[in-house]
Amino acid sequence: MFIYLFPHPYGAIQIWGVLLDFSLPSILCLADCQLQTPCRIQKCTTDFVSLTSHLNSALDGFDLEFCKALRAYAACTYRNSKVCRGNLVYHSAVLGIGDLMSQKNCSKDGPTPSTNPKVTHDPCSYSGHTGAREHRGEEQTSPTYLFCGLFGDPHLRTFKDHFQTCKVEGAWPLIDNNYLSVQVTNVPVVPGSSATATNKITIIFKSFRDCTDQKVYQAVTDDLPAAFVDGTTSGSDGNTKSLRIVEKVGGKYVEMHASYIGTTVHIRQLGHYLTLAIRMPQELAMAYEESQDLQLCVNGCPSSERIDNRGHLPLFVMGQLLPQASATHPWSVYTLETATTKCHEKILAKDIYFYSCVFDLLTTGDVNFTAAAHSAVKDVEALHPRKEHWHIFPSNESGGGDGVGTGSKFFVSSGLVCLILAVFS
Ligand SMILES: *[C@@H]1O[C@H](CO)[C@@H](O)[C@H](O)[C@H]1NC(C)=O
Ligand SMILES: *[C@@H]1O[C@H](CO)[C@@H](O)[C@H](O)[C@H]1NC(C)=O
Ligand SMILES: *[C@@H]1O[C@H](CO)[C@@H](O)[C@H](O)[C@H]1NC(C)=O
């Protein structure tokens, strides 16, 4: 029976000949030895087979790898020496290993395989090489990851690290590629203002080989489950590691780890609204058809939806430009000064997250947006691969442009607070 497990015709074949001869007695012994801890010699053997079955005796380094596998096999039999005493398969394996080790000049002490090749070649663990490319001999460069986030009323940080503030009321796709779809629904926060915030997030993990079935996740305000809509918490029964949901704070914060596509998603509820942050490999994020071109994470908001018009949109937040008397609205409680103080308590750097926080307090008066901006910073720090890009600072250039990190200015004049969120793109 073992001979079929082991198709390669090099020296090890001798072991299988021996094992084959004695497999019948060993089965008899299994019946006798039922009450003991089982002898795991067969596990040792299959591990050895999986370590060596991909080796090619014609290639350099074969002997080295083969010796490593033999040492692991020897260690495994040694661990089983007590429970396998009297087991003929065990004893013939020990003899066979000794013969092979001397034949191949393997030293008794030396390196053993650092990882099981089954693990490093796990097709459900993204390593930056998908599709036709082979692992063999190819230099493994680590994949490039991209970050996208949405928070507040709402502020979007795209895969290109562009920062925008948008209206995007209703349902909008953030991501729509061959692996993942993410859609958000935004509703107005304050009557009469264009500010909206997210109250629903739908994520579809598309089925992928044997790693996961298609899984749909949905969160709405006050219902942030730690399970997919079908009630499961992982991608498939057989492979719980390739896709799973982790509840971090009950009803307030969940993470989704999709290791088969190297993707992590954070979803939080702060106050009455949801925030989202995603890290995904560039190679996969860019795998989409032309028809899937509306993706806010990829291309940003359409210009008609931008509150920051090419980065220079004055937004009058106190008084005339927002309808109805300020006294009847909770958002009227913040002045530029109190909003600045409030946001500075949570966000020390005067970066774009800080200005977004001030903007949100002035527009909505909802102090929970302070926490949303603070969490957005934490999500960037956890998921964005390049630390030097975590903070985007407003620059003092007034000319605009579409680069990262250009201007944001405040003007205070005649009792009217004029907030210019400049060049968030
Ligand atoms: C093992 O070592 C001996 C002596 O060092 C050498 O003659 C023999 O060719 C070696 N065998 C293999 C398979 O490397
Ligand atoms: C802020 O969040 C708390 C807790 O979720 C909620 O009770 C409160 O109403 C929110 N504040 C506003 C102004 O919506
Ligand atoms: C902003 O202005 C200061 C002083 O005027 C200057 O040193 C700094 O380089 C400027 N920053 C940017 C990003 O232009």
TrEMBL record:
Region called Disordered, residue ranges: 106-138
A Pfam family that the UniProt record links to this protein: RGM_C
Annotated Repulsive guidance molecule N-terminal domain residues: 39-108
Membrane topology reported for the UniProt record: Lipid-anchor; GPI-anchor
Repulsive guidance molecule C-terminal domain sequence ranges: 145-385
Keyword annotations from UniProtKB, A to Z: Autocatalytic cleavage, Cell membrane, Disulfide bond, Glycoprotein, GPI-anchor, Lipoprotein, Membrane, Signal
Entry coiled-coil feature ranges: none
CC annotations in GO: plasma membrane; side of membrane
GO biological process annotation, one example: positive regulation of macromolecule metabolic process
Residues of the signal peptide: 1-31
InterPro entries, A to Z: RGM, RGM_C, RGM_N
Subcellular location: Cell membrane
Top-rank taxon, per record: Eukaryota
GO MF entries: coreceptor activity
Family to which this protein belongs: Belongs to the repulsive guidance molecule (RGM) family.
Protein name (database record): RGM domain family member B
Biological source species: Limosa lapponica baueri
Phylogenetic classification of the source organism: Eukaryota, Metazoa, Chordata, Craniata, Vertebrata
